[in-house]
Design goal:
With 146 residues, the protein is mainly α. It has 2 domains: 86 residues, no CATH class; 31 residues, no CATH class. It contains 4 helices and 2 strands; from the N terminus they run αααββα. Helix 2 packs antiparallel against helix 3. The radius of gyration is 27 Å and the shape is flat.
């Protein structure tokens, strides 16, 4: 009788503990993913600040931006780079293809074309530039059989 009672208790514990463990692990994983998402958005915003033209407002934020990148990156800026980034004497190159938030991403077109001479052209262009470029290349296109 005692053995049966122990087995019943053990069975009930397994039934109750498994969902709790799954819930805790799932919650932990979701929190970690959300944290990475936030970190990514902060780094993108920091890069945008460090890529922008120097205005008084941007200079104030440059220190924050450098600190964010250094705290979120495995490879940190040297002390000389930190100083120059903060005072605005150096900046990141303008990164057109970065996405800085909803509605602000630039529309881009990536395509690969085979020309009549058998060579390939692969380009990644701004949406507005792409239509002109494709029209230029239409004359050189190789017909592709289905």
């Amino acid at each position: 009788m005692k053995k049966e009672t122990e087995e019943k208790i053990q069975s009930w514990l397994q039934i109750l503990i498994l969902p709790v463990v799954v819930l805790v692990v799932t919650s932990w994983v979701n929190a970690a993913l959300k944290s990475k998402d936030v970190d990514s958005m902060l780094v993108q915003q920091a890069i945008a600040i460090l890529s922008s033209k120097d205005t008084t407002d941007q200079l104030i934020l440059r220190g924050w931006a450098v600190d964010v990148i250094n705290s979120k990156s495995d490879v940190c800026f040297s002390s000389e780079q930190v100083e120059k980034l903060k005072d605005g004497s150096i900046s990141f190159p303008n990164q057109h293809s970065f996405k800085y938030g909803a509605g602000s991403e630039e529309k881009r077109v990536r395509y690969v074309l085979q020309l009549k001479d058998g060579t390939y052209v692969e380009e990644d262009l701004n949406y507005d530039e792409a239509s002109d470029r494709i029209n230029e290349l239409k004359k050189q296109l190789q017909p592709v059989s289905p």
